[in-house]
Each structure stands twice: as structure tokens, then as C-alpha cells.
Amino acid sequence: MVSINYAFKEISCKIVYYGPGLSGKTTNLQYVHKKVPQTTKGELISLATDADRTLYFDFLPINIGSVAGFTTKFQLYTVPGQIYYNATRKLVLRGVDGLVFVADSQESKMEENVESLKNLLDNLQEYGYYLSEAPMVIQYNKRDLPGAVPIDVLQKALNPEGLPHFEAVAVKGEGVFDTLKWIIKLVLEKAQTKSQTPPSGPERIVSATAAGLPESNVEVPPMAVPPPRPILEPVGVGFRVSALEATKRMVERPLIAAGIGERSAEINVPGYRKPEPVSAAQRSAETRPEIALKNRAILRPSELVKNRVESAAPKKSFFARLLSLFAKEKK
Amino acid sequence: MEEDLILYEEEIARIDKVLSRLIKGAEAKCTLLVDKDGHLITRQGFTHSLDTTALAALLAGSFASTKEIARLVGEPEFSIMFHQGKRDHIHISLVGERTILVVIFDDRTTIGMVRLYAKEVGEELALIFRDAKEKAKKSSSKPITSEFSNQAESRLDDIFKD
Questions:
Q1: B1 in a domain, yes or no?
Q2: For the complex shown, is ipTM > 0.95?
Q3: What does pTM read for this prediction?
Q4: Largest Cα–Cα distance in chain B?
Q5: Is B3 a domain residue?
Q6: Which domain holds residue B141?
Q7: CA distances to A49, A225, B149, B155 from A118, in Å
Q8: Residues A151, A138: Cα–Cα separation, whole Å
Q9: Residue B157: is it exposed, middle or buried by C-beta count within 10 angstroms (0-12/13-18/19+)?
Q10: CB-closest option in B61, B146, B153 to A56
């Protein structure tokens, strides 16, 4: 998840490059490290075996400097691609904000691509993440090889949902920055909608509906289309818009806050005893429509939220409870 | 999905105060506070010669793998880790649910002192984090706006050039 530190004025996001072994994840990072200005990058750290295969992760911090007063950092991680290292691969995914799936375009690697994608979804699910929450782009790497599978075949097998995809030759740097720029863009967009959604807002409900959907139990034959997964993005967009509208409306009419503020201000006045009954009644008559309006604005995006509100039963008063207790005693 | 980690100046100031006390009391060289995801939260002491960003990521990775090892041997979590070097040593302990307290010290002090102070300070820090979490839940304003994204994107175009 995005880390926001107001003391250091820092925002930090985690982006993970995922994909089968030898598909070029580390190469992506190496190219970024080679090309970005010295002031922007930190050290590229590789926890690799003697044979230069990633053992745990590669790590490259990128600092794009101050944006709107906040030093903005991206931490790029790769995972070990080999099947054998799933335990450590899963650990790297923790707290991920954006994903780049690096697929190998060679025909002989198709099975591994599908397997790795399936593994990614499994691992994400174990953390309780869904693609609607962590944005993902797909990079088809090694496009320069003679036996490269055509893009439409790859798309069919790996990207039936139409996630953003890029063709790349990571060793030469082709497509590396495009991929990175795009995922950063998605991560920021995501963080933005998140910060505009009220805490009990509709976003949680998007994931709640996703929770019940089938994901990974189906066996995937090689070269076949992966099991249909929920296309959550359009739903997300829909919610995003309505949540935005709701927020806008709240900003335009901050009447409730003003009402509450007024009340406390009145009470704080020294010597002030109690609001006169008439004015209090008037005030409640004034504010009530506003409360209703606000609720409607937030609740509109989902029925689930409404249900939650309806299910909140009115609390029994103390005396009512006492009475019922006595009644029980009598029996 | 877990909530974003949001910390305000007030909390960081409180945390820094507590960490300073730890350094003084335990005579440690420096201390870092790291989120389990590898983000550095704050640091105190002589950290200027250290690459704290990388250190934070590696420590979080190390802690994560230790946790996995714990799970495999049937422990919920190894809450303390200790690395012994020739001159410098590192004491790592879990604070609250998602934060790691790292103390780097040398032979001027003892592991016992560090452990004692780390434990004491850990409880205090856990409280501060609980407060911070509550506060973050309540506040609705966040710095990432559309203006922020636009600025960031134009910056990216400058930096990421082939």
C-alpha cells in the first residue's frame, strides 16, 4: 500500500515485476538503473545466486523528486521467477501497489507464462488482494526473437481482460520505460481514487463482490485462455465516478460539518447554559434534511451500503431493557 | 487489502523522541523504524553513512523470510532477530502489527541492554501506531490528487528517456 509520511513529506509506492523465470524482470530493472539520472536512483540490489538467478528479489529505489510538495519514491522489486522459489516470491508481493507481468514471447515459454500468471493470482489471493486493487500491466518481452508468438495469440492466452500491454525488448531497453510510466500512472490514479473515497465507501464493496468469484481452482491447459475472471476495472471506474461525485457534493455542501461546528461553538461560549428549546428544535429541523442528503449521496453507489445502514437496529433504551429483564424474572 | 500507511508530523515527532531515548539509554549507534512492506518510517542516530532505503527493504525482506521460516516450524512469528557482526550488531524486533524496530549497536553496549530498551520502547511505539491508525482513518484529505498525478507524470517523462 502507498506509504505517506507527512513528517518527511514523502510518498512511497511499491511496484513488483512478476513473471516466469528468465523472462527479463531483472533486465527491466537493470535497464532502468542504467538509464535514469544519477540523482534519481538508488543502488540496484540483487539477491541472486552465483549463477545470477534472482534468489529473493532485486530492489531499485527511484526518487522522482518533489511533486506537489511531496518527495515521491517508487520502489521497484522483482521476484524470483523459478517455480521452486514460490515461498520467497510470495513474500515480495506483500503490500504491492502496482504489478508488471513480464511475459516471455517465445512459443516454448507459453506454458510457463500461463503458469506464472496463475501463480500470481493465487499468491495475490492469499494476501486478499485483487487486480482491481493492485493495478497491473503486461509486458510482452523478447519481441525481437525470431520465434516470437504473435501479440494477438499472447493477448488471448494471458490478457483476456484487456489490461494495458506493451511490447518490449528489455535488453535493448525497448518498451521498458513505457511499461514503467504506465504502471506508475495507474498506481497514482488508484491512490487518488482511494483518497477520494469515503472510508466506508463503495470501494470495499468492489472487493467484497470479487471475493466470491472463482479465481484459480480451474486447471489451465497450456495455450488456453485462463479461467474467466471478473472484469473489475469498468466496475471500478463506475464507482470511481460516483464516489467522485459524492465527494464533490460533500465539498460543495459542507453544511453538516458547519452545523456541528456551530453547535459546539455555542456550547463553548462561557456562561452559556443550554440552548433554548425552540432554537434547538429549529436547528435540528434545519440540519436533518442535510444529513439525509449526504447519506443519499454516499449510499447511492451500492445497495450493500444501504443494507448495512438498515440493518443497524435502533438501540433499546435503558428502561426498556430493564423492563424486559423484569418481565423475564417474573416468568 | 491493508490500509495505506499514513503518518503525520506529530506522530513522527513522538516516535523520534522515543527512539532517541532508546539510543541514549541502550547506547546504540542508530535505530530505524521500518514498515513490514519495506518503507522506511523514521530513523535516529548516526545513519548518515547508511543507505537507509536499501537497508529498510532488505530488513523487511529478511524479517518476512524469517516469519515464513517460523511458520514452517510451527511458530506464529519470531518476534526478535539478532545479527552478530565483528564490530556492529543488529537487533530487530517486531513492534505492533506491521512495524519493525531495528537497532544497530557496537561493543560499547551489550545485547541485554538493547533488548531491554527495545522491549520497553516497543510497547510505547505500538501505542503511538495505534493512535496514528485511528487518526488516519478519521482524516479524509490525502496529498495524492489529480494535480499531483499530472505533475508526477510530466516529471516521469523527463526522467524516463531512452
A1: no
A2: no
A3: 0.69
A4: 53
A5: no
A6: 9-159
A7: 25, 11, 31, 34
A8: 12
A9: exposed
A10: B61
